[in-house]
Amino acid sequence: METFNLLVTNFTISELMVIGGIIIGSLFGFISERINFCTRSAIKQLIGIQDSQRDKYNLIQLLIAIIISIVGFEVFSFYYSDLELSTRYITSEISIGGIFIGTVLFGIGAGLCRGCLSRQLILFCRGNLRSLFTILISVIVAWSAITGILSYPRRFLSEIGKVEINFNNNINFSIICIVTLLCIILVNLNKTYTKKNILFFLYPSVIGILVSASFYITGIIGGEGFDPIMVEGLSFISPLVNTFSYIVYSSAFDPGFGVGFILGAIIGATFSSLLGKRIQIQYFEKSTSNWKYFLGAGLMGFGGVVSGGCAASWLLTGGAVGNIGVIIAFLGFVLGIKIAELKIQINEHIFA
Q1: Which of 23, 121, 151, 281 is deepest in the core (most CB within 10 A)?
Q2: By C-alpha distance, which of 348, 336, 322, 310 is closest to 134?
Q3: What string of DSSP letters covers 93-145?
Q4: How many other CB atoms are found less than 10 A from the CB of residue 224?
Q5: What is the reported pTM?
Q6: Closest to 94 (Cα-Cα) out of 341, 318, 343
Q7: What tens digit of pLDDT does each residue of 190-204 get?
Q8: Residue 183 to residues 61, 168, 207, Cα–Cα distance (Å)
Q9: Contact, 306 vs 154, CB < 8 A?
Q10: Residue 320: in which H helix or E strand, if any?
Q11: Cα–Cα distance between 111 and 36 in angstroms, integer?
């Protein structure tokens, strides 16, 4: 409490949220750029599709991050058992249809664009203008799905298959998830592990810890104000929309954790890219790529809002809190990525 009182004497709650978001985002951006963290590549590896040699690390990195995020949240919940977390991933009901349809669309979009939104943000910091194009289209479509004309179909899809769920026994679900993920890691460990790459397995542990750190900043520090804010984990759809909203309506829009997170991710990823000398301006390689990125970006923006989050947010944040919707989301991402791979193969055959 004394630490909090010291902080609020120099900063407002809103400013503390932005600062906290920048710190969390910088760490996420730096680490993700260093290890090429990518949920799409991890899922592709799990279902037997591999793009390049570096992808062999993605699956274990993602699994480690999820396990640490689950353990971190359980520890966080133990110490703050009386805290009511008002996050979108802790709710009394979920939409089975909305989550599945949304994640399928998002998976197709991520496949067509060769990376989900978290990955696109990292690539943009390396100078990839295709990623900037993808982010802009995704944000415009997501914005429309939240408050614009696309909100009508979004609301309809988000109501499909709504069911009541009980979060009282999530510790059992979390234990099952951890054991399952550990088994997958053990099966794949002999294919990927080398001593010189030990940091590639330590870095994702930090990403998992960042989920609980986000809960602490938004739930504990943010909850001390007169108007408690929504508790947030790691996500990209809503923060990206809020960031562009702030750019357009800065005089009437109060930035929060999400805006700071995106700014921090850009700072961290750019700094890491500079250190590694990986900044290189890239454009569209083929004219036939334009439609894929345009369609894929739109599907990610709309699908992410329908499902309530992107791949990274569902697997890391949704998995951490033990939301059973993460299983539906995972199946949706897998199906979407498979559909995208099929479309890409057909297109390459036609235009070969």
Answers
A1: 121
A2: 310
A3: EEEHHHHHHHHHHHHHHHHHHTS-HHHHHHHHHTTBHHHHHHHHHHHHHHHHH
A4: 15
A5: 0.88
A6: 318
A7: 665 555 567 777 899
A8: 14, 26, 20
A9: yes
A10: helix 319-320
A11: 16
Beta strands in the chain, from DSSP E residues, in sequence order? 93-95, 162-164
Which one is predicted more confidently, 172 or 351? Answer: 172
CA distances from 17 to 195, 217, 248, 266 (A): 38, 7, 20, 17
Q: pLDDT at residue 272 above 90?
A: yes
CA distance 227 to 243: 21
Q: Which of 113-117, 132-136, 228-232, 263-267 has the lowest mean pLDDT?
A: 228-232
Centre a 10 Å sphere on the Cβ of residue 8 and count the other Cβ atoms it contains: 15
Contacts 24+ apart (CB under 8 A), 242-246: 244/139, 244/143, 245/143
Whole-number Å distance between alpha carbons of 273 and 29: 10
pLDDT in tens, 191-245: 655 555 677 778 999 999 999 898 888 877 766 655 656 677 888 898 999 999 8
Q: Which amino acid is at 202?
A: L
Q: Count of residues for the chain? A: 352
Tokens of 32: 């993700």
